Amino acid sequence: MNERIEKLKAFLKESPKDCFLNHALALEYIKIGHDLEARERFEMNIHNDPNYIATYYHLGKLLERAGQNPEAMAIYEKGMQAAKAAGDMHTYSELQGAYEELAY
Predict the structure, then answer these.
(1) What is the DSSP string of 14-81?
(2) What percentage of the chain has pLDDT greater than the value 70?
(3) pLDDT tens, 46-59?
(4) Less CB within 10 Å around the terminal CB: N or C of the chain?
(5) Which long-range contacts does 88-91 make (Cβ < 8 Å, 24+ apart)?
(6) Considering the entire predicted model, what is its pTM?
(7) Angle at 76 between CA 21 and CA 64, to 5 degrees
(8) HSE, side-chain direction, 13 A CA sphere, residue 24
(9) Which structural domains are found in the chain, ordered by start?
(10) H or E stretch covering 84
């Protein structure tokens, strides 16, 4: 698995703000239990491109696992707004489901 991480890091040296690469790296970090590094990558994505909606669900779930439910709910809400603005109702529904599951 470290091989994938090293490859992604190499690609990111050339394109440090690439949301797809940062998202992929965050998911690899989660697989090996490096949640802090994953969170940093997800947050970087939201900062660099708030319209990269794939990040919201995974960051929200990461925050839930860490027991940070209010923060997770806020991320889900932001993600729902971004998904709605993008016309991506599938992602909106996933985020809404995660939000409602946490809220109720």
Answers:
(1) H-TT-HHHHHHHHHHHHHTT-HHHHHHHHHHHHHH-TT-THHHHHHHHHHHHTT-HHHHHHHHHHHHH
(2) 99
(3) 999 999 999 999 99
(4) C
(5) 88/53, 91/53, 91/54, 91/57
(6) 0.93
(7) 85
(8) 17
(9) 2-103 (1.25.40.10)
(10) helix 69-86
Position 104, amino acid:
Y
CB under 8 Å to 39, separation ≥6 — which residues? Answer: 26, 59, 62, 63
11, 40, 60, 73 from 97: Cα distances, Å: 34, 24, 12, 11
**Structure confidence by residue, pLDDT tens digits, 12-38:** 999 999 999 999 999 999 999 999 999
